[in-house]
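Hi all, a correction to my earlier message: I attached the wrong file for L-aspartate oxidase. Here's the right sequence:
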Amino acid sequence: MNVIVVGSGIAGLTAALHAQEAGHAVTVVTKGALGDGCTGYAQGGVAGMYGPEDSASRHASDTISAGAGLSDPAAVAVLVQDAAARIAELIARGVAFDRSPEGELLLGREAAHSHARIVHAGGDATGAAIARALAAATRHAAITVVEHAFLADLIVTQGEARGIRVLVDGAVSDLAADAVILATGGAGHLYAHTTNPAGTTGDGIAAALRAGAAVADLEFMQFHPTILAEGPAFLVSEAVRGEGATLIDVDGRRFVFDTHPDGELAPRDVVSRAIARQAAAQGSPVRLDATMLGARMLAHRFPTIDRVTRERGFDWSEEPIPVTPAAHYLMGGVVTDLDGRTSIPGLFAVGEAARTGVHGANRLASNSLLEGAVFGARAAAAVSTPWTTSAASPSAETPSIGRGASPLPRVDGTPFSRAALQRLMWDDVGLLRTEEGLERALDSLTLWLSAAAAPVTVAEREDANLLLLAVSTASAALARTESVGAHYRDPVASPLLETV
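and the right structure:
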């Protein structure tokens, strides 16, 4: 079969390598260079290596608990049962996970994990090590790679995915396929502040929406609690808190215990909201105190964070550093079964672009790299098997771009721009949401969308994708009236401190 994989992070390259090894003709199409994307930014590691007092069932329980009870137990069972095999595969492909002097894999612990079960590489450079290894394996395999190609749309013929339309150097072309695997990542750039690299504009999810694929849980955007609050967004790994670092207010008090008995190791959504509220109350960023870990340990365990914090003028071994939340990971996406199949025959989705059901309302730390590897391999194994789900017809309710031909109207005096959209989403569809704010955001976004002209350039297409997803996200958030996980409906509007 002719298989096209769109995206080149851990999910996409795992799928591509497995499909090629199964005898399929594989083409990897990627927006940037091979290996670009969010995978290379991941600091924490890969969950799923169990010690003597740990088990897959305990990992599953922690995953479901962090997901606020909305995780699909069957998907979680697949995740944890396949974990050891996928970690072993990464090692075989050249990922040098950190080991003790005796050669044993070093295991870390992060928030909401009951045990240390996370393998890491280069201290806090796990994603970069994985991206390098998988990119090298792909280049050495009989896989065609098309770089700097923008996914414009899916090609759906008689209800089945039959290829993709891409934009390369300003020219549009069609690539035919028997199966398409979307591995295009999330949509962090819906928000004014995000840990995601610049190209993370939801292109695959938006293309799936336009094609009529089922999409769910877009209201569940995870905000990482600890981003360095000085300079461009830079993530300070949750593993730092797993090693013992604390969050303190202006008086040096560990304030997160006011919200949750696990304090700094509570689920990410809880910690992020606690930080946002405390920062707003005191009028300045909260601080992450890692001084008790010492300079030697910080430099050895977290070399990337140590370098960047020092470059920005902080000696975090001697003083607490200012941190703030930022949009990090989308739990929702294109709905799939346990093998990555979507509601459109021939179309698969894996990684952050997919809604597998693993994460529920809130992702457990270090499950994302594992999910990409596990479900990327499963999707590749399923491309030649009979399709078991029915295609979805395009919905009349699906928002669309291109119905207008005039410049986008002003909303409250503000013309459309990506920055204006991101500011609106940050303020009204972010960490703390109210019904009034969600309604205001949806009205504004819908007005912009109603007059949008058909996009032509890559930047215009990215903006169109973000606008489409913003409408869908605000709609989903407004429809879910209860607070759960990363979706928090605040009865009273709470201003967020602008720190990033």
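Sorry for the mix-up. Confidence is low (pLDDT under 50) at residues 390-398, 400-409.
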